[in-house]
């Protein structure tokens, strides 16, 4: 199916005749722009740019495609703006999208605080995969995306498959991924991570495209002497991994906000040292475009109070004690 963004990419390439400059214009990386151009060429069935020349020139087919697409894109964008303006007059809710785990662990605490700041303005939250959330933001279906970000990650070097690294963002909370296991009869972890051990440990992991999965990979990669992990189960959802962990299937890195009751009641125990934790930032992202007045108001309030919100959210988990050790 044709994606209107591909046509806009082609127009930027024709304007700048340089992939790097066109990518900056389109707010994607050069590799991301190249992939989208290839998708358009596959859809068209022909090459649209001459890659043998510098600066870049469109092929004859590319020029024909550009002539038609400029009119089509202009008409579609004009129609979309008119539809959105009319819908904006009727709609009062500020719309958020977030991965499922945050809608369960973060929003119940955070939304009441936010509503006290902005008054009676209604807030709407959609849950889905991070890819879904990013698409909803890019398509204007939501105003903001709330997402985990590896605290050690430079946002400017984040995965170019997702647009969040090129959006404005503010820090509103913190969490951490902790390696957890069910306890044995002695209260020790059934699946224990030991430095330098040759014993395999059964491992429950996130899918590689998942933000949490990348954070865990970073934590594992920083410890070169970690026990050998044998991946036996993957899931994109933290609650899916939590369920498998509670069944005793292996060790998993789980959000502390989701599992603190499991830890306090002894259902789960730390499976490895604190250095294996993955610190997470919780950030609110907005697209680099004008928003409705109500959404701009909410953004200003969140920006002005972001550090206060962070402290309130993070506080309950900062000094959690399990077996006398700070988890």
UniProtKB/TrEMBL annotation:
Species for this entry: Phyllobacterium ifriqiyense
Keywords, ordered alphabetically: DNA-binding, Transcription, Transcription regulation
Keyword flag Nucleotidyltransferase: no
Pfam families: HTH_1, LysR_substrate
Domain (HTH lysR-type): residue spans on this chain: 2-59
GO molecular function, one term: DNA binding
InterPro entries: LysR_HTH_N, LysR_subst-bd, WH-like_DNA-bd_sf, WH_DNA-bd_sf
Top-level taxon of origin: Bacteria
Protein name as annotated: DNA-binding transcriptional LysR family regulator
Family from the record: Belongs to the LysR transcriptional regulatory family.
Keyword flag Lyase: no
């Amino acid at each position: 199916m044709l994606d209107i963004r591909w046509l806009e990419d082609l127009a930027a390439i024709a304007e700048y005749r340089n992939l790097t400059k066109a990518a900056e214009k389109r707010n994607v990386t050069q590799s991301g722009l190249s992939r989208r151009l290839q998708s358009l060429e596959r859809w068209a069935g022909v090459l649209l740019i001459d890659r043998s020349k510098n600066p870049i020139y469109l092929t004859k087919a590319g020029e024909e495609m550009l002539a038609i697409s400029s009119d089509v894109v202009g008409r579609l964008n004009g129609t979309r703006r008119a539809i959105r303006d009319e819908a904006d007059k009727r709609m009062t809710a500020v719309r958020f999208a977030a991965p499922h785990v945050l809608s369960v662990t973060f929003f119940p605490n955070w939304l009441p605080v936010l509503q006290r700041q902005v008054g009676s303005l209604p807030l709407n939250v959609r849950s889905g995969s991070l890819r879904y959330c990013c698409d909803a933001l890019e398509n204007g279906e939501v105003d903001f995306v709330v997402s985990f970000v590896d605290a050690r990650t430079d946002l400017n070097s984040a995965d170019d498959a997702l647009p969040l690294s090129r959006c404005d963002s503010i820090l509103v909370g913190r969490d951490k991924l902790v390696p957890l296991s069910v306890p044995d009869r002695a209260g020790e972890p059934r699946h224990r991570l030991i430095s330098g051990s040759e014993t395999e440990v059964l491992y429950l992991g996130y899918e590689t495209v998942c933000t949490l999965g990348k954070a865990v990979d970073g934590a594992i990669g920083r410890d070169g002497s970690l026990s050998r992990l044998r991946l036996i189960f993957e899931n994109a959802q933290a609650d899916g991994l939590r369920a498998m962990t509670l069944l005793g299937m292996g060790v998993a890195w789980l959000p502390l906000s989701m599992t603190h009751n499991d830890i306090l009641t002894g259902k789960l125990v730390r499976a490895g040292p604190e250095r294996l934790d993955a610190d997470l930032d919780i950030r609110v992202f907005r697209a680099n475009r004008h928003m409705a007045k109500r959404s701009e108001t909410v953004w200003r309030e969140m920006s002005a109070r972001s550090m206060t919100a962070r402290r309130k959210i993070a506080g309950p988990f900062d000094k959690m004690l399990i077996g006398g050790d700070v988890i």
